[in-house]
Design a protein that fits this description.
heterodimer, A: 114 residues, mainly beta, B: 115 residues, 7-stranded mixed sheet, 11 strands
Amino acid sequence: AQSVTQLGSHVSVSEGALVLLRCNYSSSVPPYLFWYVQYPNQGLQLLLKYTTGATLVKGINGFEAEFKKSETSFHLTKPSAHMSDAAEYFCAVRRYNQGGKLIFGQGTELSVKP
Amino acid sequence: DVKVTQSSRYLVKRTGEKVFLECVQDMDHEKMFWYRQDPGLGLRLIYFSYDVKMKEKGDIPEGYSVSREKKERFSLILESASTNQTSMYLCASSFGGAGMNTEAFFGQGTRLTVV
């Protein structure tokens, strides 16, 4: 069954530095992949999604992710971190054979230092 | 804007109580989901429903049941609450059909404490 693994439960960057959050997927068929963000005491908000077509996906708040089939990866990046980016980030995949269940990774907490 | 509303933000219940968590969406979505979120474990799927009166178990259904009598409402039931069910519960909804590329929309979450 399709699944995702996020590498690193905590990532800390300085303001203005590159943000890189890692996600690897497991799927024998082309996956549908998503990145969500969760700010403290809130629900999840969609950042971006990959379906088919262009491998570089642009999302909200300056984030983007690149789908790399050869590496089974869908890492999330942002060129310059802002204090407001501090949040928890989740990678997710749809499961084809189970009614389209949306399955999440363990999450990565991003801290941004001034 | 899509709105998914969970009936309570914070809830405190006693061990052994029957607990109802309610979720309502206003976008005529076919699919609805219940997750629990625990530190270090991410979101784990408890149950989901792909249509009225239809439900499927997720990865951790033990100790829970669900009800979907109307399309817009999906209820999570803890038959006899236990302390290990203390958690954040998140409801979500999405379009159904062949919409594998459609995202899910989330409620604000209910933080349940069982004492």
